Amino acid sequence: MKYATLYNGNTIPVLGQGTWGLGGGMTPDHSQDENALRVIRAAIELGYIHLDTAEMYGRGHSEELIGRVIKEHNRQELFITSKLWHVTMNYQDTLAALEGSLRRLGTDYLDLYLIHRPNHNIPLEETFRALNELVKGGKVYHLGVSNFNLEQMKRAQGLSETPLVTNQVPYNLHNRAYAKNGVLDYCQQNGILLTAYSPIDRGHLVKDSVVRSVAEKFGATPAQVALHWLISQAGVIAVPMSTKREHLQENLGALDIEISGEDLRTLNEIELSEETLWPE
Known about the structure:
Blueprint: E1 3-5, E2 11-13, E3 17-18, H1 33-46, E4 50-52, H2 61-70, E5 79-84, H3 91-105, E6 110-115, H4 124-136, E7 140-146, H5 150-159, E8 166-170, H6 177-180, H7 183-189, E9 193-197, H8 209-218, H9 222-231, E10 236-238, H10 245-252, H11 261-268
Parallel strand pairs: 3-4, 4-5, 5-6, 6-7, 7-8, 8-9, 9-10
Antiparallel strand pairs: 1-2
């Protein structure tokens, strides 16, 4: 595994395991629990020590499943990220939401806690009053945001008493909205990581003819090329999600290929699909 260095010298893997869909979508789904547990166990066994989840995933059930697995491991060797859902962002609800996530995960602290998306109806000052307290109390080690545009991210940065670690956004070869709106450039200039979710565009990049052509040239798979394009950029990490061990293993191959020059320009010129920003 390769790592990115945070502002305080701590590190985070450049590839993590996303868990959206493990445990359900917007509501819990227990029907696939055994498979979900196998996936989480396989990810850790293969070296994915960064597990990315959220209280919204399966309405907390994703956190519960991760909690069942991480108790089998040395907690200090894992990097756990969860997210505060946007409807629970006032002071008291933020504190309660964190306690709920810790309880479901069976841990005393989170390595990284993100605001999942902006909420214009609750003052951000109130949210960060709680988040800053949680960092001071040792229940959260690092703070970040998700789906924030440039203005929102700057505002959050000004309210956080510790440097923001990341902005987690949809970013891939087909969707570069957060590069066009200035977020990527600002992150790179200010030591903030951009964490790419949907890094393979929900599987669509595996079928892209340009990606497939470059992959064939390098003896790689399209998924590896798509991930390598991301993590080869300064300050960019990714959290791909897979439900199969062989795909988890495959994704790690993105760490071992090198693409530059004409081939990189070819990838950069891929026709973009409809790009996604959260409503602002």
